[in-house]
Amino acid sequence: MKPSLITTHPFGEAYAKSLGVAPWRGHLPGPKVEEWRFTPLRNLAKIAFAPAAINVSVDIIPRTVPVIQGAARLVLVNGAYRKDLSDANLGKGIELSHGKVPAKEGSSLIALNAAYAPASLALHVTGAVKKIIHIISIGAAEVAPAALHPRITITAETSSSVTLVESHVGLPGETYFSNPVASITVGEGASVRRYVSVDEDNEAFHLATSLVKVAGDGNYEAFHLGLGGALTRQEVRVALTGENANVRLNGAYALNGTSHHDITTVIDHLLPNCTSSQVFKGVVDGESHGVYQGRIHVARDAQKTDARQLHKALFLSRGPAIDCKPELEIYADDVQCAHGAATGEIDPNHLFYLAARGIDPETARDLLVEGFLADAVNEISDEAVRAVFGAAIGQWLKLRQARPS
Amino acid sequence: MALLEIKNLHASVAGKEILKGITLKLQPGEVHAIMGPNGTGKSTLSNVIAGREGYEVTKGEVYLDGQDVLAMAADERARAGIFLAFQYPVEIPGVTTSAFLKTALNAKRRAEGKPEIDAMDFLKLVKAKTAALGMPYDMIKRALNVGFSGGEKKRAEVLQMTMLEPRVAILDETDSGLDIDALKIVSEGVNSLRSPDRAFLVITHYQRLLYYIVHDHVHVLANGRVVASGGKELALELEAEGYAKYLDAAA
């Protein structure tokens, strides 16, 4: 895929030049790139982002970051590791390092990340890690719009296991653009659980790419929660590179105002006897826009593949829009693949049933929305994280802007 | 003052008049049965009292303890003490029975100026009530009515009723789809709630339910009107002779 250029972007070309990297403006996928058709970057391209300062004075973790009891905490501010804010007592079976960012590879956004990321937060997992590892990425643009490029690398060796939580948040101030890239390698028989929450500032942009490779008998379970940001995208590409590998990729989003949230998944079944399942659910209100694109590719050799995908969205008003694009590309002949997509509104019969039990319309709607998203949230196999993410959704419902009547 | 008073109630659905002047008075402590063939307005009556949208009251009044019921929204009516046990309880995926019961109970407590129920007290209460109805306690962890059998759904309705302790309970064909064992349990639940300050309106197509629910008055509804009222003997007569003569009279 060749990105078309947005040539009008005013980002500091001189700065790019000084770093010896391609000018930023060439890195944004344009509207003609099929994978970006539903997520136009016009508004992002209008803003003159400067590279985010590394040494900003941040001395507390924003309150929007959930507290996970007993978890180790690794904090990035504007993509740079902050030892002073972290609690890097990780326990056994895992090591933290700050590696070099791999040279350009993959998409243009990854190349952009590679050009600007200060360092890669690298976790090397060799055993069964007991503690939850909580990575917190904070965007802080103080005086001018800023771009940050967090980079995370997770390598889980054979038969190791780890549970990660990632919180992406921002501080009030100028607008920022976060362009995180996570590279995750799940070794043979290893198990990685990764729960990502994107709750950026209302004005912020967030275009995340996750590249996941799962070896034979490996398990990757992920959940992607989208709660805030002007324009956010969580793109997850998973390659199942060994037999009997499994991926469970789930997520939920709740949007209001003019928020735009895009979930794009690509699952690549390369070898036989692998499974993939996806459950994504979203609620949209105001004038928001939700996007789900899910591609499942089953190679000729990937016999006995079992791949499932579901996306459902609930409209809380008539203003929002949803684009949903499931794609199945199957080259093997002995496979089970299923996909489903549905959108709807709250059922008035459900509302009446709750009203007939004395529950007021607002509370009833919140209960039904939480219930709608619960199908996806319940896919989170870690009980503590499930509760934390459920609570975050509850909080979103409480803070939701009053809808125009 | 009557606990529930329905005065000359007329109601239409999609422009078609279904209720054509219904007048009923339920005194505290009484159980009234409403019987009648299908399509005579029994369910319309229960929906109009509970406040479902899509039913237009064209004439008449309904009072609960002197309060104007028709002026209230559905949820206000419920908090004021009207309970409708649904003929077809809806399945609500994702919402656990437990979360639902707690929300409903707290809505009522708030309306009464009481604090929200303590989590432990709530569990104790549910345990006691489910046991009394012969229901497994675990059912409250399941999504509301999802995958419940017909009998389980009706029991869940009675469970809600025993927890919310309404002033007036309307049972809309609660007997439909129940086998005899479930019917007995549901009836016992209703009988156990009988009290001097509560009234019941039991809507049914069959006499069967009335063998188990102790009732005081029977009304026959035909073509949107009450065409006969009496005591227990009326139900038995209907069982023996059917509705034919009332239908002829109402036509």
Structural summary, described in words:
The complex is a heterodimer of chains A (405) and B (251). Chain A has one domain. In chain A, 16% of the residues lie in helices and 42% in strands. Chain A has helices at 13-19, 42-46, 108-116, 348-355, 361-377, 383-399, and strands spanning 50-51, 72-77, 80-81, 94-99, 120-125, 128-139, 146-148, 151-156, 161-170, 176-178, 181-186, 191-199, 205-214, 219-228, 231-240, 246-255, 260-269, 275-284, 289-298, 306-315, 321-330, 336-345. In chain A, helix 4 packs across helix 5 and helix 5 (361-377) packs antiparallel against helix 6 (383-399). Chain B is α/β, with parallel strands linked by helices and 251 residues long. Chain B has a single domain, classed as P-loop containing nucleotide triphosphate hydrolases (Rossmann fold), CATH 3.40.50.300. Chain B contains 9 helices and 12 strands. In chain B, strands 6-9-10-3-11-12 form a 6-stranded mixed β-sheet, with helices on both faces. A 4-stranded antiparallel β-sheet of chain B has the order 2-1-4-5. In chain B, a hairpin with a 2-residue loop joins strand 11 (217-222) and strand 12. The longest helix of chain B is centred in the middle third of the chain and has 15 residues, at 97-111. Chain B starts with a strand and ends with a helix. Chain A binds chain B through residues 347-350, 352-361, 363-364, 367-368, 370-375, and chain B through 50-53, 73-75, 78-79, 83-84, 86, 89-90, 92-95, 99-100, 103-104, 107-108, 111, 143, 160, 164.
